[in-house]
Amino acid sequence: MPEPAILAPKRRSHAETLAAQVTPLITKLLQKTAIRPRGAVTVSSVPAGAKVLLDGRWLGVTPLSMEAFAGPRMIDVQFNRYLPHTSTVRIEPNQTTTVDAVLVRDPSAALARPPWRIATGSVLIGGGLLLVGFGASALAVNGQCQDGSTNLDTCTPYYGTAAIGGGLLGTGAALTLAGTLMLAIPSRATSR
């Protein structure tokens, strides 16, 4: 019968060693966090729906009310096409700190047109110009002989295209105007 091997003491793996060292640190951190004083912060903005950052961390959008650690804190309120509002506040334990941000429109922010407006406006202008061309052509041949002669007393039939030419011309002009307005007038700023 072979002799039993002498068992060497089991060595701890690197992960087990790290876990043994980190566990007390995490416990200590959680205990300090649990007793750290807290207050509340309420943030509102005009316009509403602005992003709120507390010490550079995104919290949500206005109106916002939440618990925060006490102490001096930096609050940023941001909204697309508006100048950011930054304030330093002191959150007191068991107190609510209120920040009311009235945002000012950024004068350098260009109002963009959404792609659907650019496409629709372009199609309206193109279609309108095409109809204007057809209407002008119809009006140009109105009253002329169909057989090409110049004697209006003997020619039959002749082109009577005044009504259709006027309709095409008017519709084309309206479409061109609508497309131009769609491209020229900036859209309302609704994005964040």
Overview features:
24% strand; four-stranded antiparallel beta sheet; elongated; Immunoglobulin-like; 192 residues; three-stranded mixed beta sheet; alpha+beta
How would you portray this structure in words?
The chain has 192 residues and is α+β, with helices and mostly antiparallel strands. It folds into 2 domains: 72 residues, Immunoglobulin-like (Sandwich); 70 residues. It is built from 3 helices and 7 strands; from the N terminus they run αβββββββαα. Strands 3-2-5-6 form a 4-stranded antiparallel beta sheet, with no helix packed on it. It is elongated.
| Strand order, sheet with most strands | 3-2-5-6
Based on CA inertia axes, which overall geometry fits? elongated
Low-confidence stretches at least 5 residues in length (pLDDT < 50)?
none
CATH architecture of the largest domain: Sandwich
| Number of separate domains | 2
Q: From the alpha-carbon coordinates, what is the Rg to the nearest angstrom?
A: 38 Å
Sheet-strand content, in percent, reads 15-25%
Biggest pleated sheet: 4 strands, antiparallel
Mean pLDDT: 86
Helices, by number, come to 3
Order of helices and strands: HEEEEEEEHH
Number of strands: 7
Classified by CATH, the class of the largest domain is Mainly Beta
What do we call the CATH topology of the largest domain?
Immunoglobulin-like
Instruction: Give the end-to-end Cα distance, rounded to a whole number of Å.
Output: 81 Å
Judged by helices, strands and strand pairing, the structural class is alpha+beta
Q: Estimate the helix proportion, in percent.
A: 25-40%
Classified in CATH, the superfamily of the largest domain is Carboxypeptidase-like, regulatory domain
